[in-house]
Design goal:
9-stranded parallel β-sheet, 9 helices
């Protein structure tokens, strides 16, 4: 049965949500967060590097089964636009690798202005895989890609993602996706709920969460794993909505796609 892991982008704990977590005396915000949720997405790595010692400290703050998703720096995707990135990949994998066994995903997010280029994308994904392969067994760390230009959803891009075993992110709302979603990983799913219709700000109504829960319940009958990240962090509701979705999972049974609207 496929496990479903639910988490948030970041681990800030507003006082309004304090009742969801152990008291402050329990430890750091990350430790308190990890007592309730089993995964988190680190977005700050997109904007600035973190020292290996920082990643190691975070890893020491969470239980053995907890996993981190770490976003690739924008210096690679947005500034260098996938060109001449070898040293940048070396640095990123060295830093994030300090999470040890608790590194679960590497998230690649490309800008809306970046068209798919098979050579550059292939070098990126093979470069990440090669560097991770020096430390991790195959499949321990999954690579996911949220592309925001329509060319990344064509046949050539789909074939490359499948060949390199990269997960095509299911994003809500979808950006740059010109047609039906085509999965690229045989048994892993990565869902990012940004808030819709207003990205980062919109609250998901119970009916919408129920649709997501229904789709996830269908996937639980398959092999593999699903990660769901709430990224509507400007709404101030992401923690409670993640908790609500987790509760809903045991009740849902239909097959609505998280990136579609009905």
């Amino acid at each position: 049965m496929q496990p479903v892991t639910i988490g948030i982008a970041g681990w800030g704990l507003p006082s309004a949500d304090a009742d969801l977590f152990p008291p402050a005396s329990f430890g750091s915000n990350l430790a308190r967060y990890a007592a309730v949720f089993s995964a988190v997405e680190i977005n700050s790595s997109f904007y600035r590097p973190h020292r290996p010692e920082t990643y190691a400290r975070w890893a020491d703050s969470v239980p053995a089964g907890f996993r981190f998703a770490v976003k690739l720096p924008k210096s690679i995707t947005h500034e260098k636009r996938l060109q001449d990135i070898g040293p940048d990949l070396d640095r990123f994998v060295e830093e994030a690798g300090a999470l040890g066994e608790k590194l679960g995903w590497v998230l690649v997010q490309t800008p809306p202005s970046l068209r798919f280029d098979a050579r550059a994308a292939g070098a990126l994904f093979s470069g990440i895989g090669e560097r991770l392969g020096r430390t991790y067994q195959r499949g321990h760390v999954l690579v996911a890609c949220e592309a925001r230009h329509g060319s990344w959803f064509g046949d050539q891009a789909t074939a490359l993602l499948r060949e390199t075993e990269v997960i095509r992110v299911i994003a809500d709302p979808p950006a740059g996706e010109p047609g039906p979603f085509l999965a690229t990983h045989i048994n892993a799913t990565y869902v990012r709920l940004h808030g819709s219709p207003q990205i980062y700000r919109s609250v998901y109504e119970p009916e919408r969460l129920a649709q997501v829960a229904s789709w996830l319940c269908e996937r639980r009958g398959q092999d593999g794993s699903s990660l769901v990240i709430f990224d509507n962090t400007m709404s101030g509701t992401q923690l409670r909505q993640a908790a609500q979705l987790r509760q809903m999972l045991i009740f849902s049974s239909s097959d609505h796609h998280p990136g579609s609207h009905t």
